[in-house]
Design brief:
With 656 residues, the chain is α+β, with helices and mostly antiparallel strands. The protein is built from 16 helices and 23 strands. 34% of the residues lie in helices and 17% in strands.
Length: 656
């Protein structure tokens, strides 16, 4: 079951009105901001002390040290490596080399690498897999090493990673546990693809197979309170997440409730889940495991049709940072963690590789333009951990739960700062998500001004995209080749578009949509062009009737972009805004607003409100005041003054 290939990042160039500024800011402002926070938090200093063998009681801020700290370093390394693929930056190169030297020095003779354990508890390595994140952090090292090797051709970081991976294989090849926080599985597949070492793929599959066993490793581990390393508070937090009130082990929080091939719903912690589902698709691709592929498809169907926000966000509950039940999608308390958005995009890309179906590109696109981008400020230096769909602008409903993770405005850093470097590494590797190649087929999965150089059916080809998508729905795809080449060009037809038009060399064509794509097979010559037009009217979107949080409400969407109202643009209280079904909306590009964006304006009705409004009254038909409302992309909210925000607005039939 060989999957479709992703062209190497070095062979994809993005030149795009929408994306180029964002990628540049990621390469510069975001990479710099994350680096400075890593310095200030003592992560590099602790690696240095681990390299020197400094005693544990002399760690930097030992009381605040976290066993997953290195994972943020690795994600930064990955993002920085991608940045170096696009520009020469001696200072950034020097920083990357410096961090690699710290890792080389901190690595133990047997390949193990984690400064928390090396300095603080060397005798406790691999003893608390449920919550200590050793394997999760290792996975991010493996991903960073592959990225660095692919971009620079250097092997220093890859040598560190393979030494650690070999140690992990030695420890776990015969069973004996799995990661409490997934991530290492997909990283091992990535390391396998880079090195060709089958043992890494075998271990990834073994880790998946460990989940859902009757004799669960995690149940045994959590059942022994004397064997834990963490604080009593963390133990109680995890115990309550993994065990029912009567003490029965549940395991859903870490997707350990059933064997992976028997699972059918998206459950538990959303980041853990998306990382594992991505790995399931990866392993299915590499091994031809049809049962694994079928399971991850079932899970995807449940997640997308019953547990995903209109923004593409995943994870509705702050209590478990994840999923609860079908259609439970609250707005003001939505978790929709930025890391879960990144995990979902990675998962959907792998599903597209596995199946060639365009529906995965649809979800990847929705999540990218909304749930993921909302997590990063327009200047690239401030971040959201959670991404609610409603805010009153003065206090957040979950501030009492976790002020750190539910701020009113984006923060520069968090006590658990997984999201900033995760968003950075995804945005800096955006070129890997645009195209897929399979034999003599080239699929266009995401639309952005770009060029890709690849081999299709053994012939070298360059394909250029010219577009201002998602600001505009016109896309021109040109084929550049030295000699005629027979191939199939497969542009994805977005699921939100009901009336696309397609022309080849100026002549209209109407091919059938197959698996979410049009398949244009012909002998292509240099300069042949496909023009796609995806009309982008402003649409009012309704939720499934069982989504009670959106009952009687509508959201605005234009193309793949979901819109919201902010108080800074609208004088009336947003909860009084009511949209009629026949309301007309205009869309206009404003180069001076929010770094340049398409603004949506339309007429709305205001419901009765204020001190004179009765608490209860008879339902009657009445004419209320009308106003013009202004909506901006959800990804751009909270970049100006603090104000209220709504994605879902009341639907109005003008009866009250």
């Amino acid at each position: 079951m060989a999957g479709k290939e992703t062209p190497d990042l070095e062979n994809v160039t993005i030149d795009d009105k929408f994306w180029s500024p964002r990628v540049r800011r990621t390469d510069t402002a975001t990479v710099e901001a994350v680096y400075q926070r890593l310095v200030e938090s003592g992560r590099f200093e602790n690696l240095r002390r681990a390299a020197e063998g400094t005693p544990g009681d002399q760690q930097v801020a030992l009381e605040n040290r976290m066993y997953r700290d290195e994972s943020d370093v690795y994600k930064w390394l990955e993002a920085a490596s991608y940045a170096l693929s696009r520009r020469s930056d001696p200072d950034l190169e020097a920083r990357v080399d410096y961090v690699i030297s710290l890792l080389e020095g901190a690595q133990c003779d047997d390949g193990y690498l984690n400064s928390y354990f090396s300095l603080h508890a060397p005798e406790d390595r691999w003893t608390n897999l449920t919550y200590m994140h050793e394997l999760y952090s290792a996975g991010h090292l493996f991903e960073a090493a592959v990225a660095h090797h692919e971009v620079t051709g250097g092997s220093r970081l890859l040598d560190v990673a393979t030494a650690f991976a070999d140690h992990v294989v030695d420890v776990f090849a015969e069973g004996g546990g799995a990661p409490g926080h997934q991530g290492v599985e997909l990283a091992l597949v990535r390391l396998y693809r880079c090195t060709g070492q089958r043992r890494y793929l075998d271990l990834a599959r073994s880790f998946l197979d460990e989940r859902g066993r009757e004799d669960s490793w995690f149940a045994r581990e959590m059942g022994d309170p004397d064997a834990r390393l963490c604080t009593d508070a963390i133990y109680e937090e995890y115990h309550d997440l993994l065990f029912d009130g009567d003490g029965t082990y549940d395991g859903k929080h870490i997707q350990d409730h059933l064997p992976v091939r028997e699972q059918s719903k998206a459950v538990g912690h959303a980041v853990r889940a998306t990382y594992m589902y991505a790995a399931m698709a990866d392993v299915a691709m590499e091994t031809g495991d049809d049962a694994l592929a079928a399971a991850v498809e079932r899970i995807w169907t449940n997640a997308v049709n019953r547990r995903m926000y209109v923004t593409g966000g995943l994870g509705n509950s702050h209590e478990n940072e994840g999923f609860t039940s079908d259609y439970d999608l609250p707005n003001d308390t939505a978790y929709a963690e930025t890391c879960a958005a990144a995990g979902s995009i990675a998962w959907n890309r792998r599903m597209a590789q596995l199946t060639g179906e365009g529906k995965y590109g649809d979800v990847m696109e929705r999540t990218l333009y909304n749930a993921l981008l909302a997590g990063v400020s327009l200047d690239g230096t401030r971040f959201f951990y959670a991404n609610p769909l409603k805010s009153d602008g003065e206090s957040h409903p979950l501030e009492h739960v976790s002020e750190v993770r539910f701020p009113l405005q984006r923060r520069e850093w968090y006590d658990t700062p997984c999201c900033p470097p995760n968003a950075a590494r995804l945005l800096s590797s955006l070129g890997e998500y645009l195209y897929l190649v399979d034999g003599d087929e080239l699929s266009v999965e995401l639309y952005a001004g770009s060029s890709v150089r690849t081999s299709v059916g053994g012939s070298p080809v360059r394909v250029d995209q010219t577009t201002e998508y998602p600001l505009d729905g016109t896309v021109e795809i040109s084929v550049r080749t030295d000699s005629p080449v027979e191939m199939t060009l497969r542009p994805r037809i977005p699921g939100w578009c009901s009336d696309p038009s397609i022309a080849v060399d100026g002549e209209a064509v109407a091919p059938d949509v197959e698996r979410g794509h049009v398949e244009l097979r012909r002998t292509w010559t240099d300069g042949d062009t496909v023009t796609l037009d995806f009309p982008m009217p402003v649409r009012q979107v309704q939720a499934h009737p069982e989504v009670t949080a959106a009952a009687g409400r509508v959201a605005l969407q234009r193309g793949p972009v979901v819109y919201c109202l902010e108080g800074v643009d609208n004088d009336a209280p947003l909860e009084t805004v009511c949209l009629r079904e026949d309301a007309a909306f205009s869309a206009e590009y404003d180069p001076d607003l929010l770094d340049g964006t398409v603004v949506v304006r339309g007429e709305a009705t205001l419901t009765a409100t204020g001190d004179d409004a009765a608490l209860y009254r008879s339902r009657t038909s009445s004419a209320n005041a009308t106003v013009t409302v202004t909506a901006v992309p959800y990804y751009a909210w909270a970049n100006r003054d603090e104000s209220e925000m709504r994605v879902w607005m009341r639907a109005c039939d003008c009866t009250h």
